[in-house]
Amino acid sequence: MSTWSENLRLLRNQHGLSQKEMGNRVGVNGSRIRDYELDKCEPGIELLLKIADNFNISLDKFITQRLSLLNSSELTPTVKLETPSRILVISESEPGRENIIHVPVKAQAGYLNGYQDPLFIESLPSYRLPGVRSGTYRSFELQGDSMLPLQPGTIVVGRYVESWRDIRSNYTYILVTREDGIVYKRVINKVKSKGQLVLLSDNPEYEPYAIAIDQVNEAWAYYCHLSNAGAEQKHNLEQLLKAVEELKMEVAALRS
Q1: 3-class state of residue 78 by DSSP
Q2: Per residue in 9-19, pLDDT tens?
């Protein structure tokens, strides 16, 4: 048996994947994965690269070193291949038209435990913004001054990110984390190489720090924000809904 075929079987089993599931990840059927593991045929270089990438391991190590003989410290840290499967709780004003669910400051502690609880999500206020493209959105009220010029109380609307692979470096995201709560940061994606996201504040007084991807429960890509620079920097849902109604009126006026 060749080194790479032995490694394929080892890594697939370590990650708890069936041959069919592994095939789905790299674009071949399960029987082809079985043939690879039995060393009956050999994939092309592009497929080998894709397989190695899925296991977050270098191609050179994948095809030349028997991983079963290496110490665990010599292997690249295991990274979740995708965000765990789950049902994302949504709110709809009508079939096929999702509302934006708002998570105010007072509800954020509860959201850390209740983000998968339909009853908790239903208890949160929801609304719609005109012109928002299809997708699932949440809005969160900012705390602190780490993301200046956005002030505390600004409401940031985020679009749901299904996989860490879709997190783009140097863009901002709302992350629902196990240890740090709900944070809004600029993100550098280093999951492939280190299993981490590096979080940066736009306020230079705050130092960047890294967080393991398995500490992130949800990621929401910045879509827009709502603020009222002329008022005290504290926003509530009533102000938000007022801003939405004003925006609707502006859109209606433009269309008339």
Answers
A1: coil
A2: 988 888 788 89
- Provide the pLDDT confidence category of residue 96 given band limits of 50, 70 and 90: low
Alpha-carbon distance of 97 to 95, in angstroms, equals: 6
Q: If we measure between CA atoms, which residue out of 64, 67, 51, 44 comes closest to residue 19?
A: 51
Tell me how far apart the terminal alpha carbons of the chain are, to the nearest angstrom: 72
Phi, psi of 160 (to 5 degrees): -60, 135
Q: Where are the beta strands (DSSP E) in 112-250?
A: 126-127, 137-141, 155-160, 171-177, 181-190, 196-200, 209-212, 216-226
Token pair for 211: 């967080």
Token output for 129: 């913004």
Q: Which of 237, 12, 243, 6 is nearest to 130 (CA)?
A: 243
Contacts of residue 156, Cβ cutoff 8 Å, sequence gap at least 6: 139, 140, 142, 150, 174, 184, 222, 224, 225
- Please tell me the distance from the alpha carbon of residue 219 to that of residue 73, in angstroms, as a whole number: 29
Token pair 């890594």 is found at: 11
- pLDDT, the chain, mean: 81
Pairwise CA distance, residues 27 & 52, whole Å: 14
Q: pLDDT by residue (tens digit) across 115-170? A: 888 889 889 998 888 877 778 899 999 988 899 888 888 999 999 998 888 899 99
Domains of the chain are 3-74 (1.10.260.40), 92-255 (2.10.109.10)
